[in-house]
Structures are given as C-alpha cells and as structure tokens.
What we know:
single chain
Amino acid sequence: MLLATEFDTLALGAKIAAILRPGDCIALDGDLGAGKTTLARGVLQALGLGSEAPSPTFAIVQPYDPPETRIPVWHIDLYRIEEPEDVVELGLDEMRREVAMLIEWPDRLGKRLWPDALRLHLGVESQSGGQTAARRLTAQVPSAWEGRWPPS
C-alpha cells in the first residue's frame, strides 16, 4: 500500500482505529522518519485524542484511557530498549488483554512479540522530481486480523 502523503498516513490510522479493540497489538516497524509515529497519531486522533500525541521515545510507554480515547491504548516506543529482557519491567504482558498496543521498534522485543500482532512495515520510497518521499506499507497479517485487514 502506497502512502503518498502525511495525510494518507493519518487517514490509514483512522481506518485502523475503526477496527482496533483491546487486546490488539500493532507492531510498527521502519527506519527513523518512516512514519511510525504519524501512523500511531492517526490512530489516536481517530480514537478521540484531542491533542497531538507526543512521541513516547523518552517515556517509552504513553498510556491513553477513556474518555481521552474510545478504548484504552498504550503507545509504546522501544527505541531506547537495549535488551529484550528489559521489556519485562514495562508490564506489557500484564496489560496485553486490557489495552490496544501500538508498538514502535518492535524488533527490540526479540521473540517476545506476540504471534497475533499485526506487523506493519513502513519504508520510504524516493520520488522523482524532488517531491516529498512516499511511504510503502507492507503488512504481515496473522489469523487474528483476518477479515479486519486491510481496513476499509
């Protein structure tokens, strides 16, 4: 799926928000600047967040709860995590079924990423003519997401 503009990325986030439910995990993968946080912001805005969601790079976990959002969501950025074992202290396993999770840098989890997580990879594609680069989204869709992905 090609996301030509930031608006397209935010719009996809809104479509994802419409199908997101507690217990869902979305793993957002891609290089720095690929659009992971923009996609997460699109989800959070569509879930009702009235302000712009900060990047959770320093907080690592940024929780959102009703009435701030329609459902409880944890926006997680694992960029600063060095070892998969360090994730245990974050309490992700304990909250797994109670909140929806948007996880940036999921590779930091190692083998701890749940098999039912929707894996979305954002890659930057260069454009000719000096245009802003587009993003190419590819998805690995587990059976838990069949019938919901791609969102309409």
